[in-house]
């Protein structure tokens, strides 16, 4: 019989769980994002909570961003596109070949925000409890 999963919220407000196999505390949002994209985020990437709620670790609320775009969204331009880092459009409508720093954008980088309602800045009610970690 499996034991209860040990969890905590760290001093920065992020949920973590104890991974028995790795014998260490793991950030829940990073593990969920890892499962979503099929790989671990690499150095130079950050996992971003789209709605700003550090405790909302549903896969549809997480996106893996290049460090510089993540910094731009949090500090310089909160309305920056998650895909290219420029203002004036949303990631779902982004056709840029390069990001705001001039680096090529991976064509396989499929950012999907179909559940996000731009008008209300809130999640659709459908599948409300999916991936609730």
From TrEMBL:
<dbReference type="InterPro" id="IPR001878">
    <property type="entry name" value="Znf_CCHC"/>
</dbReference>
<feature type="region of interest" description="Disordered">
    <location>
        <begin position="101"/>
        <end position="133"/>
    </location>
</feature>
<keyword id="KW-0255">Endonuclease</keyword>
<dbReference type="GO" id="GO:0004519">
    <property type="term" value="F:endonuclease activity"/>
</dbReference>
<keyword id="KW-0378">Hydrolase</keyword>
<dbReference type="InterPro" id="IPR003615">
    <property type="entry name" value="HNH_nuc"/>
</dbReference>
<dbReference type="InterPro" id="IPR044925">
    <property type="entry name" value="His-Me_finger_sf"/>
</dbReference>
<dbReference type="Pfam" id="PF14787">
    <property type="entry name" value="zf-CCHC_5"/>
</dbReference>
<keyword id="KW-0540">Nuclease</keyword>
<dbReference type="GO" id="GO:0008270">
    <property type="term" value="F:zinc ion binding"/>
</dbReference>
<dbReference type="GO" id="GO:0003676">
    <property type="term" value="F:nucleic acid binding"/>
</dbReference>
<dbReference type="InterPro" id="IPR036875">
    <property type="entry name" value="Znf_CCHC_sf"/>
</dbReference>
<protein>
    <submittedName>
        <fullName>HNH endonuclease domain-containing protein</fullName>
    </submittedName>
</protein>
<feature type="domain" description="CCHC-type">
    <location>
        <begin position="81"/>
        <end position="94"/>
    </location>
</feature>
<dbReference type="Pfam" id="PF13392">
    <property type="entry name" value="HNH_3"/>
</dbReference>
């Amino acid at each position: 019989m499996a034991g209860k999963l040990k969890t905590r919220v760290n001093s920065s407000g992020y949920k973590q769980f104890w991974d028995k196999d790795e014998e260490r505390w793991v950030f829940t949002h990073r593990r969920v994002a890892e499962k979503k994209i099929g790989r671990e985020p690499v150095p130079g990437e950050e996992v971003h909570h789209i709605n700003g709620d550090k405790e909302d670790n549903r896969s549809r609320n997480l996106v893996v961003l290049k460090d510089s775009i993540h910094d731009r969204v949090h500090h310089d331009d909160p309305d920056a596109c998650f895909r290219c880092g420029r203002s004036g459009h949303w990631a779902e409508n982004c056709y840029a070949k390069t990001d705001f720093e001039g680096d090529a954008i991976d064509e396989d980088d499929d950012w999907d925000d179909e559940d996000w309602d731009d008008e209300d800045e809130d999640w659709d009610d459908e599948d409300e409890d999916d991936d609730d970690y």
